Amino acid sequence: MIDEKVCLQLIDSAIKVRDYSYSPYSNFKVGASILVDDFKIFSGCNIENASYGASNCAERTAIFKAVSEGYKVIHAVCVVGSFDEFTYPCGICRQVMLEFALNNSVPIIIAQSRENYIVHKLNDIVPFEFSKNNLI
Ligand code: THU
């Protein structure tokens, strides 16, 4: 469960950062936000590249920003895509979420707006995962 106020803060943050999306190739803007320790929120947008393969998804931008500033534990994730549809994280981003999530029940908020969103648990969108726990 996630507190509704925090959930709405995450959605606001993801919608705001989506404006900075650099996506001239797909024309698909994505914004993401994550909740870390101290109730701090990091956000990020997708950043594409002429080589396509060097593009970075919004979720990973937000996560890498947080980790590189010392926040390694994710308590919640929010993703807001474009057009009136729900945008789910790609496989690579799901794997990166597994690496830093507090646990498998971390809420993943898939939002279109403050009024229209779905909350999943990380484990729902990455069942049968391979993670660092397998290496211990
Ligand atoms: N994208 C994201 O940033 N996050 C997702 O969850 C799905 C896809 C980006 C990658 C690329 O820049 C564009 O959306 C189209 O795939």
As for the number of domains, it is 1
- What's the total helix number? 4
Nearest-angstrom radius of gyration?
Answer: 14 Å
Main sheet: strands, sense, barrel: 5 strands, mixed
Short précis:
By secondary structure, the chain is α+β, with helices and mostly antiparallel strands. It is 29% helix and 18% strand. It has a single domain, classed as Cytidine Deaminase, domain 2 (3-Layer(aba) Sandwich).
Describe what this molecule looks like in 3D.
The chain has helices at about 5-20, 60-65, 90-100, 120-125, and strands at about 30-35, 40-45, 75-80, 105-110, 115-120. The protein is α+β, with helices and mostly antiparallel strands. The protein has one domain (about 5-135): Cytidine Deaminase, domain 2 (3-Layer(aba) Sandwich), CATH 3.40.140. The chain has a 5-stranded mixed sheet with strand order 2-1-3-4-5. The radius of gyration is 14 Å and the shape is globular. The N and C termini lie far apart (about 30 Å). The structure holds tetrahydrodeoxyuridine (THU). Tetrahydrodeoxyuridine binds near residues 23, 30 and 79.
What are the main properties of this structure?
single chain; 136 residues; alpha+beta; Cytidine Deaminase, domain 2; five-stranded mixed sheet; 4 helices; binds tetrahydrodeoxyuridine
Structural topology:
Elements: H1 4-18, E1 31-35, E2 41-45, H2 58-67, E3 76-80, H3 91-100, E4 107-111, E5 117-121, H4 122-125
Parallel strand pairs: 3-4
Antiparallel strand pairs: 1-2, 1-3, 4-5
